[in-house]
């Protein structure tokens, strides 16, 4: 059939794929070669599965050019393997080396390679089993996300990467400056300070744009890149990362938002738990902990209650006090978040109703105090064991006068956010949403400690790979 690609190794190894007298073509890279007196064996991988396909070459001359890393095209017959290590093997009749590989220079050898070493060879590190498996698990989680939101009648929206505002108001955005052209078009506009006539940035979040689209489509989400100019060197931060963000109209309850986030996350985890790559990670890491989270109800506690528990632990403990003393009105540090999830609640926990002074301007005020410094907002952070914060969300402030006061308090120009005010001014409705770090989700599922190993080409302060 036209348009049909040849089967991948994953398809060939599946129980459903026939083996009787089936002549096939296999393309991939040589993972290993073992030569004996009358026969040679090669393991071929095309990245579609952790397991490679064993190729049996009874004519040893055909194996003379097979070396680790070379790309090859093999023709032969797929058959049942007599050996216990694999169910199927390829009896090779023809070999074509498509791309040679010098074994003395090839940086991806069979021995264990450190993360730092593999980052230096980022263009090839996906050929290592764990990195290839990580990318396949990313694919599984991505498909599960789209499936979940389709089932909830959300629309997938492609939001802008270039923006004129800093959604979080934290001043951690990358500013855009065009490279001057050496030969500008004849009809080009005179050069100005700003390409777009106003300052432009790489987006730190798609939330505000999703809110605008949600005023017509009701339920929207995106899985897209985000950028933050953080100098942090922790294992939880990247300068370029992927964010799952969703916004929907006509919700008045923070419980509804937390409920959807819990249901969505459990559904995604459930889609991953039976995957072979995920099982392999479980055998080597703490990835098993996410399985336990699927069948239990997740805890919920207010920020005030959480701080009370943190203070109690801090004052009653002699040997393991927190580095940062917890107190109401202070941000929860990573050590606080992990203690709450790992020890206090021993599982995922929603921390809700943070002080307004700690959160961005767009979160809906609870108006629970006449003192602005004591007022809280209808928001949550989802904390998970071993990782800390996974997601955050809130009801959005739909009341225009209250939003205006928040903009003014945060020193933000009502003129710059005129379009954002308009979606309240013209038919605005109660609404809410959340954002979830995709690499952090992947870290939770696989047990990979550092998010730099949860993305194909990581970027962080001081380094840009590829």
TrEMBL record:
Species this protein is from: Rickenella mellea
Taking every annotated instance into account, which residue ranges of this chain make up the domain Aminoacyl-transfer RNA synthetases class-II family profile? 135-458
Q: Which family does it belong to?
A: Belongs to the class-II aminoacyl-tRNA synthetase family.
Q: Which domain of life is it from?
A: Eukaryota
Name the UniProt record assigns to this protein: asparagine--tRNA ligase
Which keywords appear in this protein's UniProt record, sorted alphabetically?
A: Aminoacyl-tRNA synthetase, ATP-binding, Ligase, Nucleotide-binding, Protein biosynthesis
Starting at the broadest rank, the lineage of the source organism is: Eukaryota, Fungi, Dikarya, Basidiomycota, Agaricomycotina
Q: What does UniProt give as GO cellular component?
A: mitochondrion
Question: Record's Gene3D superfamilies?
Answer: Bira Bifunctional Protein, Domain 2, Nucleic acid-binding proteins
In terms of InterPro entries, this protein maps to: Aa-tRNA-synt_II (IPR004364), aa-tRNA-synth_II (IPR006195), aa-tRNA-synth_II/BPL/LPL (IPR045864), Asn-tRNA-ligase (IPR004522), Asp/Asn-tRNA-synth_IIb (IPR002312), NA-bd_OB-fold (IPR012340), NA-bd_OB_tRNA (IPR004365)
The biological process GO terms on file are:
asparaginyl-tRNA aminoacylation
Q: What is its EC number?
A: 6.1.1.22
Pfam family name, one? tRNA_anti-codon
Annotated GO MF terms: asparagine-tRNA ligase activity; ATP binding; nucleic acid binding
